[in-house]
């Protein structure tokens, strides 16, 4: 479970990226995190994962308070960032092994998971190559494998499907659903309305750092008396973005 209570974050003392935000992602639930560019999604996710410290409020990951017991909280999180371009001098396998070492994954467990994930994402023949030689999509696959190699209970994913080929994106969505069905929690940001509608149990819409809506897609459509999610979102954001993404 992810529990956020009244968190805020201000940059340079003037720019309020996140403003008194509260929500809960329950066990067994996939929640989509939606908003226009600059709405505060990535800042929120970085606070959830302990990369940034909120100015105020509390964050609990299962039974752990991120502010008081951050190492224990981080130990049960699988985090995929919005940037796969890191540790580029390492091979794919070296990076995954590095992450497995950090989380103290036993040798047999990591071996089985790496083999299984490499097959799921068609990376068996590329693990020995350096990340700098990978395409963006291949780097993203490695980030997914590395984030999940320690079998975390809570998945926090920032634009996880960007750059993935259709098969890999489909497999990741299936994995997210299976993970939630096993009683775990998944929070992910997305710019694709169709993905949010098909995959999420509930969605959060954030605007200017504030929670604008939190509920099911059906409740969103009922509130705005429209079935077209693109039109709903454009109405919410004041037509801030003119494409079919969020």
Task: Set out the fold topology.
Elements: E1 2-11, E2 15-25, E3 29-34, H1 41-48, E4 56-61, E5 64-65, H2 70-75, E6 77-80, H3 92-102, H4 107-120, H5 136-148, E7 154-158, H6 166-181, E8 185-189, H7 193-199, E9 202-207, E10 210-215, H8 217-224, H9 229-237
Parallel strand pairs: 3-8, 3-9, 6-7, 7-8
Antiparallel strand pairs: 1-2, 1-4, 4-5, 9-10
How is this structure best described in words?
39% of the residues are buried. The protein is an alpha/beta fold and 246 residues long. The longest helix has 16 residues, at 166-181. The strands form two sheets. It has a six-stranded mixed β-sheet with strand order 6-7-8-3-9-10, with helices on both faces. The radius of gyration is 18 Å and the shape is globular. It contains nine helices and ten strands. The model is unreliable at 241-246 (pLDDT under 50). Helix 3 packs parallel to helix 5 (136-148). Helices cover 37% and strands 25% of the residues.
Instruction: Spell out the helices and strands N to C.
Output: EEEHEEHEHHHEHEHEEHH
Helix content: 25-40%
Which strands sit side by side, in order, in the main sheet?
Answer: 6-7-8-3-9-10
Task: Write down how many β-strands occur, each being a DSSP E stretch of 2 or more residues.
Answer: 10
Structural class: alpha/beta
The fraction of residues in strands falls at 15-25%
Instruction: Tell me the Rg in angstroms.
Output: 18 Å
Oligomeric status: single chain
Distance between the termini: 25 Å
Morphology call: globular
Compute the average pLDDT.
92
Output the number of helix runs.
9
In the predicted model, the low-confidence regions spanning at least 5 consecutive residues are 241-246
Main sheet properties? 6 strands, mixed
